Amino acid sequence: MNILERFKLNEKKAMVTGGGSGIGEAYCHALAEAGADVAVVDINIDNAVTVSESLKELGIQSLAIQADISDENSVDGMMRQLMDSWGRLDIAVNNAGISHRDNAEDLPIEIWDKVLNVNLKGAFLCAQREARIMKPQKYGKIIFTVSISASIINIPHMHVAYGTSKAGVQHLVKALGYEWIKYGIHVNGISPGAVYTPMVEKRLPELIPVWEKLYPINRLGYIEELKGAVVYLASDVSSFMVGNCLVLDGGYTLI
User: Fold this and answer.
1) Is 121 among the residues known to form the active site?
2) Is residue 148 a contact partner of residue 189, using CB atoms and an 8 Å limit?
3) Rounded Cα distance, 210 and 164, in Å
């Protein structure tokens, strides 16, 4: 088969958590542009609906689903809605997450719990439910949004709970990749560096020029630059990749 044909996702059923904005929205569009039907999952249903409607203009099917991934019952409801509509799931992108900005000595335990519950527990809850669907199919692609903060101290941004949660997600990629490949389920991740997203530009504007000087490429990433990675991992081109993360960081972790 032609290499470009192997990137196509026609007739595949995909879902993206945190798909209502930022990186998740870019993933939704990337998968849809490659031919997949995409369920847009977000805690903000209005955002999910807006993205879902824009995807339908590409000629694919799309669902908008509201879910709080830190809540087990909400995750189960999300999966029921998906299966009631489509009956199967081929590609799952566990992207939803939150961050914070606190020095470790001042970090309220409530913030620690919230970040770990969404970023780590929520990622596992989603993956566990996704695998239960994919296992009988003997096929599936599960993709996590990790972060370079899983491996390094992402100076000058102090976010100990976020980095710890993402280190856990990075281990999930390895552990679940090992456990589930025997079922035909490929688990991998994408580890972005700082990216020009509305969240970064709104909440961390003073850090942008600092990062631009620290990154060897002299800028942050653009959301569009992550789209190829998710299509690669979602497609059969990545059939030999198991339990690893693609690092897209403009060279930041080289130094």
Assistant:
1) no
2) no
3) 23
